[in-house]
Structures are given as structure tokens and as C-alpha cells.
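Job type: complex structure
Entries:
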Amino acid sequence: MDTFNAIVQVLDSTIRLSVPLLLACLAGLYSERAGIFDIGLEGKMLVGAFAGASAAAVFHSALIGLGTAVLISVAFALVHGFASITHRGNQIVSGVAINFIAAGSTIILGQAWFSQGGRTPALQPGERFEAITWPGADAIKDVPVIGPIYAELISGHSILVYFAFAMVPFTWWVLFRTRFGLRMRAVGENPAAVDTAGISVAWLRYRALICTGILTGVAGAYLSMVQNGGFVKDMTAGKGYIALAALIFAKWKPVNAMFACLLFGFLDAAAIRLQGSPLPVIGKVPVQFMQALPYVLTVILLAGFIGKAIPPRAGGVPYVKER
Amino acid sequence: MAQAAIELIGINKSFGAVRANRDINLEVARGTIHGIVGENGAGKSTLMSILYGFYQADSGEIRVGGKPVSINTSNDAIALGIGMVHQHFMLVDNFTVLENVILGAENDALLKSSIAKARSELDRLEREYGLEVDPDAVIEELPVGLQQRVEILKALYRGAEILILDEPTGVLTPAEADHLFRILKQLKDQGKTIVLITHKLREIMAITDTVSVMRQGTMVATRVTKETTVGELAELMVGRRVLLRVEKGQSEAGAIRLSVKNLTVKDSRGVTMVDNVSFDVRGGEIVGIAGVAGNGQSELLEAISGIRHAVSGEVMLEGKPIDLTGKADPGELRDRGLAHVPEDRHHVGLVLAFEENENSILGYHDDERYLKGPFLDIDAIMADAKDKIEKYDIRPGNPRLKTANFSGGNQQKIVLAREMEQDPGVLIVGQPTRGVDVGAIEFIHKRLIAMRDQGKAVLVVSVELDEIRSLSDRILVMFAGRVVGERGPDATEGELGLLMAGVEHQEAAE
């Protein structure tokens, strides 16, 4: 029974850890499907986390925090759009620049406003998103097998967790069942086809980037307002890049993206769980090794285990009307 | 005279210092097929792009159905019933036919009703015009002929009354082109107006009612097709008399310089594309390989030039064996005197982002002539490039210009100059004049004949039957990966056409 409980606990933290990855991964899916590489997911998440925690602390409202996180993140997404769509700049350079601005500005503004070494004030109840307990969760908690699964895995998460997982079928529906999705996929493959069909390539790509901004904003809010009770500098810790890796791993498909992010989340959870405890056969493993494991596996998976991943064909190329 | 479907009056358009269109006047009557011919860069595509709202004219007036209109975007053009089939298809390769057809013409925010409507509409168009295509097929899995049909369907689905086709046969096999022409005639009979942009004069003669000629941005003449000749049109296009069929003397075939025995090649999917092919090419002769595209000619060329590994076969170059099943690489073959002008100059023959002088030594860049110690000898390379520019009349004559900025014909001349000036014993050429205009075709053909007369062995693969017949001393016909016949240069088009269609081959097999 102990083993079972341990497994449930690992899976529970898998869900928690994969949520920011999943949101960022879906965010990247919108922009890359529209033909805009976005290496700035990391930065947008970071400013989202900072803006969310700051606004929540100042206005004492989780919802205002979330709204601010989304707003600021979308603003950064539009900067990326202005550079790479309107001015046809290099999308990688623009994305990297956004990451740098995010990393620097959050610390400077945090110190200037709150004087806590770049942190934001610890969030009080009401300023954070609390866990939602589903009906009957407490009642059946002690029922073997089903009890813990329902009470721990399904119930007891914040609204943002459910939002993240709901975004998976929603994104699939948008991509494959709506006009916007059809055009977005088309503009990522062959923008000239979209242009000659009488649709604005730029406006379409801007809209995709706005979707990206919304999702990275929520991802940031999750980090600083759910996982943590406030903003800590560099708290995204490379999740934006892992999300990009997951996106490739998922071959730019929403349902695959969910499984990829759950896998990365699981590796993370397992690494935390196994820290310090001796492994069978191998014995005690240094903490650092366990922490590095998800990243090592990322490299291995990307290098050889996913087969051919074909990115959207127009990805990374600014659209210029041909003569 | 029927009412005019389109009138263009005094159209001007400049790109920077380049005046692409100057005072263009054009009138196209409703229900006719109107051809626009001109060399590459004459301004045909620019003019049509203005009509389709892709560019705006600097000055001038457009009238559709007699009414002055302003066309600022492609949407305006579509709303006026103008549809365009672009030279490079504007299709999303991994979408289905249906998805491509509805893209930009959806009913509402959800796709369901649009797809249902498109399905029934495609069914109707198929019945009316014989435009058959599987609505659920994915574009990249369709042959180019069918992809083009999807482009036509896209325009018709949007209610096009006027259809502009930009170089529609450039990528088609002769049979596919014939089929396209039948479709166009049918569309005309139903009252549609068709504007056909091309530089192939044969097509103009075969299908159009009237024809306009453009040269250097101006409209130089408009003729009723029945009252003009290919010769007159060619002269109007180029501005001087053009030889449409090269003059050449008798070939004096010498020793065998390239010998291919039982060569078999498979493509990347493992399908046998070249099946047990044998032939010889002697010094002093041009051997032409005719065939409908996709019957193994490309793979044959790739194997002989060392780009693609053969499965089996014995190949002798200048009397010595080469192993094409794995060991030979293009560099080694070059060293042994085999030069190759690839079919696809954009992807294989040139690096378009390089300057002209860099492309003019590509592949020979480690030759001592171009080196000073371990470094490139820039002076020698520039002198060499200038020399080639002069000899091959490459325009503009600037070796520092980016290769992408040369026209198709001049790009082809850059490749030809590079390969021919190495003085190879064997020259193999794929599609020598694909996308090349009339004046340059004449030049390229003369050069190939000159190589032959110097005693070189020349192997030419082309889908242009005229070209094969006019150049070759011997013609081999490929069908389904096999050489199904050999004919002399006096073989008729019909005779070769039957071979290319595999008719005799099938009869023989039965």
C-alpha cells in the first residue's frame, strides 16, 4: 500500500509539474503553427509570473493578478510580432532579446517596487489560486485505490490546472475544426497561399501570437500564484525551453503535447522523489544527477526516439511578397 | 467583337529603378483565350499580378466588364470574378484538396458547413468540366498535373469568370499539358475568359484566339493567333530573328566515351525507377533521352552523375570502369572528365544566395587554378568568372551579383558555363532549357552542338520533345524505367509519342 501511495504522490506531482510546461507548450504550438518560431516562451512566462504576483499582492486579488499576467505576457508577444512580422526581423534574435529583457526587468522592477531582493511579497490566501476540492473527495479518500486516485489526482488542484488540461482538446478543436485554425495552419505552411486567397498574413500571425501570449501569461501566473506563493527571480528555470523541446517531441500536435509534457513532468517528479533515497542495484546517487536526469532524457529523446518531426514549413521565415 | 472582359489602359509599374510595365494597353474579349508571350522579365507576371491585386499599378486604369474598378488586394480581384493559377502553386502541401479549396472562402467560423458545401460544389464542377480529383487526397501526394487542377478548382469555387494562368505548362508533361488545354477549351465554351501567360509559342498557336507580345516592359504587338506565325511571334519577343531549330552538320561519332550496362536504380522509397538500362554514348554525338517526366530519367541522371547510388550495373567512363553502386562520388566523376548540368538548377546546380563568381567555380573550387596555397585566389576566380560571362553572354554581366537575381535563362548559362568550360569528355545535361526563354534556348542549343563538334560525348535528357528531336543524333525513349526504343533524329513526333506512352512496349510484352 505504501508503494501505491508513493506512486499516487509521484503522479500527483507529475500533474502539478507538467502544467506550466503544458501551457507553454500549447502557447508555442499556436505561434509555431502560424510560422513564427518563439524561443521567447521562457521570457513571456517569466514576465507573466512577475506581473501576476505583483498585481495580486498589490490589489489583493488572484483574478486581477491573473489578468495582469496575461496582459503583460500578450504585450511581450506583440513586441515579438512587431519585430518578426511587421519588420521581418530574425525570430530567434527577437525571442532571445525578449528572454533577456524579461530576466533583467523582473529583477530590477521587483527590487524597485518591493525591496525584497527581486522577490515579490509572499501572497496571502485570496491572493493565490486555491486548490478546489471536488464533491465527495473527502468522503471516499480512504477507499482503497479509487479513493486516493480521486482525492489526490483528480480533485484538489487549482483552477489553472484544470484550465491547462481543458486547453488540450480546445486547442485541437480550434486547429482542426475552425476557420481560424485552418488559416493558421495554412499560414505556417505556405503564407503565399494564404495571401493569394485574400487573407492578411500579418493579422493572422498576430492573432496566433496573442493566443501564445495568453497561454504563457497563465503559465507564469501558475508558477508564481499556485506553485509558489510569490515571484522569485528566474523562477521559470528553463521551462520555456523544455516546452519547446516537448513541442518538437509532440510533432506540433495538441494531444501529443499533453503526453510529452506529462512525460517531462513525470521525470521531474521522479527526480524529486528519488533524491537522497538509494536506488536498487545502483545504490545512492548524487542529488545533482537526479536533477539533471530530465534534461539528459530530453536530449536523448529528441536525438533519436521520435522519428522524423517535420516542423511547419514556413516556420522562422518572414513573409515577403515575391516579385 | 464580343464585349471586353478586361481592359487595361495605360498601366505603369516600377520597382525602384526598374520599369517593369510601361504604358500597357490590353483588351481581352469575353469568352476567349488570350495569350501573353514574352521573354522572362518582360513584365508579363507583373502585369497579371497587378490585375490580381498582388501589386498596385503606379498609374493606369483597369476595367472589368466595361466598368472602371480599383483592385487593391487579391480579395478585390476575387470579388470581381478574377481567379489566378500561379506558376508556383499556391497550395498548402499537407492539406487535403478540400481544405485548400475552402481556404479563404469559408462560410463561417466553423469548418463543418464549408466542407460540406465544397464537397458538393467540387462534385458539380467535376461533372460540368470533367475536373476530376479526389477531394480527400493530400496535395503533396498528388502529381503536379492534379495539383494544378486543384488550383483551377480553387478559382472556379470562388466564382471566377476570368482565369489567369501563369506559365501553366512549365511543370507539366506533354500529356498533362494536352489535358489542361482540353479543360481550358471547355471552360471557354462555357463562357469563361482565359488569359494564358507563357513563353512557349507552340502553346500559344495551339490554344489561343488572340495573342499579345511583351518585350522589356512594353506591349509590342497584339495579333489574332490564326493570322500570325511562330516565327513572327519569336521575332517580336526577342526583337530580332530567332532560329527555332538549330542548324547542325552530320555527327561524326567516334569512340565510346560513356558506356552504361544493365543499370538499375531505386528511389528512396525502394521503387525501381531505372530498370536494367543499357546504352553507349560516343564522342561526337548527342544522345537524347525522351520520355514523360517520372519514367526514370531523373534517377538515371542522378545515378550516372554519382548523386544517387545505383543498385547494380556496369558503367565505363572513357574506357575505365566506375562503381556507381556506392563508391563513386560526384567529385571523383568530375575529376575523371564527366560534367553534369543538373535538372534542378535551383536546388542542385546553384547556391542561389551565392554571388555569380562563386557559383561559377562551385565544385571545382579546389582546383589549383582557383587556389593560392590553402586560400581561394579571388583575383583568378573573378577573372575566370568575367571570362565566362563574356563567352556565354550572361546578363547582367556582374560577377558580384547574387545568383538569385539572375533570370532563369542566365542562371542556366552560369551552370552551363561552369561545366562546359572544364572541357569534360562527357557532358550530361538534364532539361537544358527548362524555364529558359527563346533567345537563350537558341544560344544553349548552339553550345551543345559545339561541344559535340569538338568530339565530346553529350547526353541530354529533356521532357521537351521538340528539343530532343532538334538536338539529338540518336533518341532513346524511356518508359517505366526502361529504354523502350531507339530512333534516329528524323523520327516523327507521333512515333516518339507512342513510345513515350508505352504503347509499343506494352504490345511487345503481351
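Summary: The mean pLDDT of chain A is 90. Chain A has twelve helices and two strands.
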